[in-house]
């Protein structure tokens, strides 16, 4: 029997999932985003789920696009992601069922503190127009993640296009923390979810080189939902286990646990299972 550490993001783990290798008798296989893993939220939820149900939660953390692909390929039982438009298309195509809201935070633009005054009072669309005009280096996730999807939406709203061919626009093709580090090295900007930024801030003991330079725009809400892999398409998917986990994570007890999850005494996610459809 293979022993796999919770939260392992290696290609080896993905290969095991794809091969249908059993990792244990009482377990649930989940594909999720880098932000739920990087922030440490799953390190809190997984042992709580084990305690309440006796089931081991095994997850692989990748961009939302890749997480949904793992579900489409019948490699996992449940997906926990944050790209509403893409999720709805996924459900319409019959890949996922029982899509359920879990929580939200928001996206923020971060960069060197010197950028803060530049964007004061601007909307995110106005800020992106200025970034293009002044050719400020911008580092994109470039990985089809939920964050990458939101960033592309903002560029299209601001410019009517995505500046993919511009020399100042850099596609990292990596996770959020790695992308932040690249933006720091390039003395540029990036868009990140607030939860991962707080984790980055915590890694620097509350004094990070990159700071929030724009926040609060109504278009920057970041909604997370969970859904089961459709058992009609994937016969080996553990639908019963997926449904049990969905019901558990949106229970009053666990919604309170999500609300109480903090770093630097800052709340990373706001539960919203009862307020959003």
Automatic annotation (TrEMBL):
Pfam families: PBP_like_2. Disulfide bonds join 74-234. Residues 1-25 form the signal peptide. Residues 30-252 form the PBP domain. Keywords: Signal. Glutathione binds at residues 33, 64, 82, 141, 146-147, 222, 224. One of its GO terms (molecular function) is ABC-type tungstate transporter activity. Gene3D superfamilies: Periplasmic binding protein-like II. Transmembrane segments: none annotated. The keyword Transferase does not apply. NCBIfam families: tung_bind_TupA (NF041772). This is PUTATIVE PERIPLASMIC PROTEIN. It comes from Wolinella succinogenes (strain ATCC 29543 / DSM 1740 / CCUG 13145 / JCM 31913 / LMG 7466 / NCTC 11488 / FDC 602W). The lineage of its organism: Bacteria, Pseudomonadati, Campylobacterota, Epsilonproteobacteria, Campylobacterales.
């Amino acid at each position: 029997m293979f022993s796999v550490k919770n939260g392992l993001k290696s290609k080896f783990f993905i290969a095991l999932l794809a091969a249908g290798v059993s990792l244990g008798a009482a377990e649930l296989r989940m594909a999720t985003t880098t932000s739920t893993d990087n922030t440490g939220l799953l390190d809190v939820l997984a042992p709580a789920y084990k305690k309440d149900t006796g089931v081991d939660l095994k997850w692989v953390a990748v961009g939302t696009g890749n997480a949904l692909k793992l579900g489409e390929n019948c490699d996992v039982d449940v997906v926990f992601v944050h790209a509403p438009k893409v999720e709805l298309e996924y459900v319409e195509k019959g890949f996922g069922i029982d899509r359920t809201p879990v929580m939200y935070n928001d996206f923020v633009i971060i960069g060197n503190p010197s950028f803060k005054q530049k964007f004061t009072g601007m909307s995110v669309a106005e800020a992106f127009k200025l970034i293009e005009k002044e050719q400020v280096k911008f580092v994109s996730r470039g990985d089809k993640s939920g964050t990458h999807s939101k960033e592309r939406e903002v560029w299209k709203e601001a410019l009517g296009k995505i500046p993919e061919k511009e020399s100042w626009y850099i596609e990292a093709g990596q996770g959020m923390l790695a992308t932040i580090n690249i933006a720091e090295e390039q003395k540029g900007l990036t868009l990140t979810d607030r939860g991962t930024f707080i984790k980055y801030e915590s890694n620097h003991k509350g004094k990070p080189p990159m700071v929030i330079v724009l926040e609060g725009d109504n278009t920057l809400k970041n909604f997370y939902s969970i859904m089961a892999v459709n058992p009609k398409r994937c016969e080996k998917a553990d639908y019963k286990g997926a449904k049990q986990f969905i019901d558990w994570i949106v229970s009053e007890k666990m919604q309170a646990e999500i609300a109480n999850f903090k770093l630097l005494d800052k709340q990373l996610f706001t539960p919203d299972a009862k307020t959003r459809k």
